[in-house]
Structure to design on (1221 residues):
């Protein structure tokens, strides 16, 4: 017994140490490596690339970035709040349907929404020109804001729905009982209670938008933002060091946003009610008519737009747009050869493995930090959120810089893609697990220790089964992200480890929208299928777990 | 009658709910709905509060049919089981909430008016405290003050003391009764705790499976239960029959034991509880429970033969 | 229910295993080839690199159509990825030249020139270079040339008719106010091709006239694309009437599905599509065989079939449709070295014009 326990505690120590080493090695080391590289030129130390960092042009770029990111985040959050609110006060069936629809529209292969919008509403768009005969110019900050907002809605609305479901409906009852009408209840109870969630969503969107470089490329026109400029320095001008220096400018706003986000998460923690909540289906509460109307309109409009966007992608895969009219063709489908099929399988393999391990690491981190409160783990968690803050392409570059030689040389392998994906998306599982642990009674663990089970065993036999639903949700999120992510992988690929999303990105850049659409459809269908399987497991087990 | 419930019915899918509920409540009265969980007492409360729509039946308040009023329009207020205090507001703001929206005070005036109620429940000095920083008992008081502050004519209390420890519960029970006396508010109180029901109420309504089984003063309920269900739910009881086939209920404490080596009963088991000792007696397989008060327990030992004297018994169902 | 779940998990596991096998699939094929090599001894002399796998970084649209033929003839397997030369150079810098890629195929010659400076390219003068004009290739032999990519414009015939525009014949014509907002071109700081048009016209027109021209055309440009391929695509989709573009086989391909016509103007800027071997290549001999094949008369004509361009090898006839509209005399006299050295100053001046 004693020997067992000590064996297990050694084993656990080994896990913790490995975890810490992994975070240092695969996050901190590459990022530091990239930054150090940007302070050299021709093998010599220099701050040459930092000298002009604060020049007027860069300041304008950062202003543009902050302006667009702020506007897009606010817009996405407002619209998502509308959808979340509408869905929350529907019957359970409708609510679940909306939640799953959101989960599906989260699958967004590179450029799909940008191209969708251009084909439909561009200068010779199928709707704007083909139907209404109007020539719109979508290029500029307005198109950019619109696109970023739309693409942020799915994830935000899911966050908000989760937030609303954690709201104790008794508060709504109490407010009504105390004489507040639905509108006053919305304003004085529901909205204030949702502020932490809303702020989280806002800042998550903000960091995503400020590091987004793909949307501005397609739709920005003459409006330039910092992330795109930094990306183009790498992609078109091969000015690696200058670009890395430029990314440094993105860090302060992103870090400020991140700390704000964390602070608010902590506030949510202290607010959350530990006792059993009254769920929304047991109460009789109707939103004010005008709110129902507006939020319902937003919801319906959003899903129509999504249906059109995805429908458009499918149509693009089998057609050409010739001066505002459609011509059907099977040409694009022929492009999908064995090379693409190999890449697709490789992508699925990578995303499944990375999604799985990313979730495991994220949950382990949360367990040792939040639950066991092992000193120093908080720092590790902070390191874990870095890859989310910097624009993806630089997380990829950082890997090349440090992993191209030496004992852990692995450029050009599938392994480097998998490891990169694992650590890029670790925040997803980590944040979800943080929330889940709040709702699991600590006494369950104590009971397990009390019954003579080691800490490690308890983790395997008590903790993991309990957070299984969280595990599956995180897996879906991470898997979806890995399937469609381009930024960090773009420069990590070589002929041997090509993945489909990067190939799709190349086709879009070459203007081969039809072929890109075929790949997009393939990516969506595979991701959709895997997600359905995961959802099936998740809902199948729900009753058992709770 | 300040409140009248007529044929109130609400059946859920699983056939639980409230069936044909009729009750009249006098102004200033303290009524307890007593019963095990799932008997429909909280449903009844929610029907009165307006959170649920009845399948049929009406709720009258001061003779006015308020069945179709939404909760915010009903001059009744609920104290929820988990208090449902707003975590983003402080104590004073919570209490002022109803004054603002029910009594339509301006925000500043509402806060001013709320002070009185904070004082009433003995929380002066905690006005600006966050809800999360209060103890359970303090949260309970805030919830009570918040409901009282609406000036509601009827207060509905849903197991408000169930989350507190025994000592605090006894203390708050007295306070509640005291506040009710001061404000002369009509209260409908839901609990599964018979002691609470008996000690607080003017009248107790015992419920079973969505129906009223018996209504009466605490004493009537205790000493004249209509059936064994009521008798067993409220207090301990022995049921004895006579030759004529009448069923009597005998409370264990209404007995007196005397030692007698030829006595009919043998002491089989003694459970020492401090203020009383529960004794299980056996007479050739026929069991009887009797209670001893305080120090009397020293006089008896397990295995002793005793005689039993019945101080009071009542015929079951004869009210 | 439970059975259903079992079946689903089984499917998921199968999917995983399947993908694992698929990932290794290429290895398996390689092994098979190895076996073939041993048994087919008589072929060995002609095919010394049978079974060698070359990794190629491609920035030459349509080139992949020729790889199968190469493999069939030499037994050398090709694995390739399509990556802009700028991205490839960034990647090279990040890994300090230690790339796993063997050959660089096509793209912007300025990236090649930079790569030479950084020591990433291997010096190799293929015998086939004898048939290629000296101005297309590096004098030191660090890169050779596959083809010449001429630049002109692509017009959307429907839009030209609809908007009542004239078909432009000279570069100067493009500055006419009738084209306001209807012209699209790539950003020269991003697209090597567009930079070649800028630099070429500056060399051909003379500094002063050229900058007047660029200033005037900026007023007519409705959209600056973020890659060289974007303008042609946008014109084909009907978003803009005129696009500045490289004219290759792919451009002619567009005419089959969209109402577009490629047009050469009075002066034709061009860039070579280079080819080079990476210094870090572990398969230099096979890579040399690859370069030899692709600059030979035979390889050049195969590559021309894959994507119709004017080939670098003077023994290969230019493609018919290109020859039909391109007067070779219009090709400007272009100093590639000067194009490379003037890049920074040219782009800076251009940025002033566009106000960015």
């Amino acid at each position: 017994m004693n020997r067992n326990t000590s064996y297990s505690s050694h084993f656990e120590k080994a896990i913790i140490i490995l975890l810490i080493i992994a975070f240092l090695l695969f996050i901190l080391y590459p990022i530091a490596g990239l930054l150090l590289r940007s302070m050299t030129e021709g093998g010599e130390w220099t701050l040459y690339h930092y000298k002009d960092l604060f020049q007027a042009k860069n300041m304008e770029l950062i202003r543009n970035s902050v302006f667009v990111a702020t506007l897009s985040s606010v817009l996405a959050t407002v619209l998502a709040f509308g959808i979340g609110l509408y869905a929350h006060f529907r019957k359970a069936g409708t609510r679940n349907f909306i939640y799953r629809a959101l989960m599906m529209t989260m699958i967004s292969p590179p450029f799909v929404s940008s191209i969708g919008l251009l084909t439909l509403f561009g200068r010779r768009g199928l709707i704007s020109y083909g139907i209404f005969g109007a020539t719109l110019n979508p290029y500029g900050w307005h198109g950019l804001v619109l696109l970023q907002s739309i693409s942020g809605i799915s994830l935000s609305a899911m966050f908000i729905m989760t937030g609303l479901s954690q709201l104790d409906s008794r508060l709504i009852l109490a407010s009504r009982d105390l004489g507040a009408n639905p509108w006053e209840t919305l304003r004085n109870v529901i909205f204030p209670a949702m502020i932490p969630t809303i702020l989280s969503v806002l800042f998550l969107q903000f960091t995503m938008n400020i590091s987004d470089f793909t949307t501005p490329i397609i739709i920005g026109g003459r409006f330039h933002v910092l992330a795109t400029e930094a990306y183009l320095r790498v992609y078109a001008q091969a000015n690696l060091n200058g670009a890395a220096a430029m990314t440094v400018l993105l860090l302060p706003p992103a870090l400020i946003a991140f700390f704000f986000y964390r602070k608010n998460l902590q506030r949510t923690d202290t607010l959350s009610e530990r006792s059993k909540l009254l769920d929304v289906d047991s109460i009789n509460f109707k939103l004010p008519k005008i709110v129902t109307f507006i939020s319902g309109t937003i919801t319906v409009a959003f899903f129509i737009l999504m249906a059109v966007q995805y429908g458009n992608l499918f149509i693009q895969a089998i057609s050409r747009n010739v001066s505002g009219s459609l011509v059907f063709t099977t040409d694009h489908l022929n492009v999908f050869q064995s090379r693409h099929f190999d890449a697709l399988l490789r992508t699925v393999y990578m995303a499944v493995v990375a999604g799985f391990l990313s979730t495991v690491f994220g949950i382990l981190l949360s367990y040792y930090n939040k639950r066991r409160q092992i000193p120093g783990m908080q720092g590790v968690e902070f390191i874990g959120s870095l890859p989310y803050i910097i624009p993806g392409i630089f997380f990829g570059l950082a890997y090349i810089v440090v992993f191209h030689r030496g004992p852990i040389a692995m450029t050009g392998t599938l392994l480097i893609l998998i490891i990169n994906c694992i650590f890029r998306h670790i925040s997803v599982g980590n944040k979800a697990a943080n929330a889940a642990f709040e709702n699991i009674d600590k006494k369950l663990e104590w009971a397990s220790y009390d019954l003579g089970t080691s800490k490690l065993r308890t983790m395997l036999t008590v903790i993991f089964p309990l957070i299984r639903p969280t595990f599956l949700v995180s897996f879906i999120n991470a898997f979806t992200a890995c399937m469609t992510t381009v930024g960090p992988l773009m420069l990590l690929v070589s002929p041997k480890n090509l993945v489909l999303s990067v190939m799709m990105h190349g086709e879009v850049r070459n203007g081969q929208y039809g072929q890109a659409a075929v790949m997009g459809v393939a990516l969506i269908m595979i991701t959709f299928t895997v997600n359905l399987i995961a959802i099936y497991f998740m809902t199948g087990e729900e009753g058992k777990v709770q | 009658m300040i409140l009248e419930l007529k044929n109130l019915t609400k059946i859920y899918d699983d056939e639980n709910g409230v069936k044909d509920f009729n009750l009249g409540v006098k102004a200033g009265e303290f009524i307890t709905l007593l019963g095990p969980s799932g008997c429909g007492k909280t449903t009844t409360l929610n029907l009165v509060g307006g959170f649920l729509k009845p399948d049929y039946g009406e709720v009258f308040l001061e003779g006015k049919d308020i069945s179709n009023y939404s909760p915010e329009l009903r001059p009744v207020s609920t104290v929820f089981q988990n208090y449902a205090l707003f975590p983003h507001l402080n104590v004073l703001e919570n209490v002022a909430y109803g004054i603002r929206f029910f009594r339509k005070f301006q925000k500043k005036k509402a806060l001013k008016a709320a002070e009185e109620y904070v004082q009433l429940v003995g929380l002066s000095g905690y006005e600006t405290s966050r809800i999360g920083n209060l103890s359970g008992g303090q949260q309970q008081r805030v919830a009570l003050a918040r409901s009282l502050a609406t000036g509601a004519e009827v207060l509905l209390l849903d197991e408000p003391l169930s989350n507190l420890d025994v000592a605090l519960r006894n203390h708050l029970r007295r306070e509640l009764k005291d506040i009710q006396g001061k404000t002369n508010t009509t209260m409908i109180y839901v609990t599964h705790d018979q002691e609470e029901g008996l000690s607080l109420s003017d009248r107790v309504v015992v419920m079973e499976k969505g129906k009223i089984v018996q209504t009466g003063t605490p004493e009537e309920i205790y000493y004249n239960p209509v059936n064994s269900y009521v008798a067993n739910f409220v207090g301990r009881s022995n049921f004895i029959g006579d030759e004529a086939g009448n069923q009597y209920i005998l409370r264990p404490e209404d007995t007196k034991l005397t030692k007698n080596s030829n006595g009919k009963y043998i002491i089989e088991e003694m459970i020492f509880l401090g203020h009383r000792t529960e004794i299980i007696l056996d007479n050739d397989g026929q069991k009887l429970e009797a209670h001893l008060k305080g120090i009397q327990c020293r006089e008896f030992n397990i295995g002793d033969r005793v005689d039993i004297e019945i101080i009071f018994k009542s015929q079951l169902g004869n009210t | 229910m439970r059975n259903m779940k079992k079946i689903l998990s089984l499917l998921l596991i199968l999917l995983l295993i399947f993908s694992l096998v698929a990932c290794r699939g290429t290895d398996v094929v390689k092994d098979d080839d190895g076996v073939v090599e041993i048994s087919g001894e008589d072929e060995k002399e002609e095919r010394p690199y049978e079974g060698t796998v070359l990794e190629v970084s491609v920035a030459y649209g349509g080139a992949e159509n020729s790889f199968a033929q190469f493999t069939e003839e030499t037994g050398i397997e090709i694995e390739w990825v399509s990556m802009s030369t700028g991205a490839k150079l960034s990647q090279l810098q990040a890994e300090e030249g230690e790339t796993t890629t063997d050959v660089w195929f096509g793209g912007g010659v300025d990236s090649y020139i930079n790569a030479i400076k950084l020591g990433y390219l291997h010096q190799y003068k293929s015998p086939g270079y004898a048939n290629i004009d000296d101005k297309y290739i590096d004098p030191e032999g660090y890169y050779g040339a596959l083809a010449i990519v001429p630049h002109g414009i692509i017009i959307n015939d429907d839009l030209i008719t609809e908007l009542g525009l004239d078909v432009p014949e000279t570069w100067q014509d493009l500055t006419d106010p009738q084209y306001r907002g209807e012209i699209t071109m790539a950003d020269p700081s991003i697209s090597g091709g567009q930079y070649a048009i800028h630099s070429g016209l500056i060399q051909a027109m003379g500094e002063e006239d050229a900058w007047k021209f660029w200033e005037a055309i900026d007023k007519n440009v409705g959209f600056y694309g973020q890659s060289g391929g974007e303008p042609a695509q946008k014109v084909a989709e009907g978003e803009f009437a005129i696009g500045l573009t490289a004219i290759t086989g792919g451009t002619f391909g567009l005419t089959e599905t969209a109402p577009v016509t490629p047009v050469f103007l009075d002066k034709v800027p061009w860039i070579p599509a280079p080819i080079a071997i990476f210094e870090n290549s572990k398969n230099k001999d096979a890579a040399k065989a690859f370069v030899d094949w692709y600059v030979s008369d035979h390889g050049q004509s195969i590559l021309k079939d894959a994507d119709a361009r004017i080939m670098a090898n003077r023994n290969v006839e230019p493609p018919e449709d290109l020859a039909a509209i391109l007067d070779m005399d219009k090709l400007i006299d272009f100093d590639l070295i000067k194009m490379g050295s003037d890049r920074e100053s040219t782009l800076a001046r251009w940025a002033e014009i566009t106000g960015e």
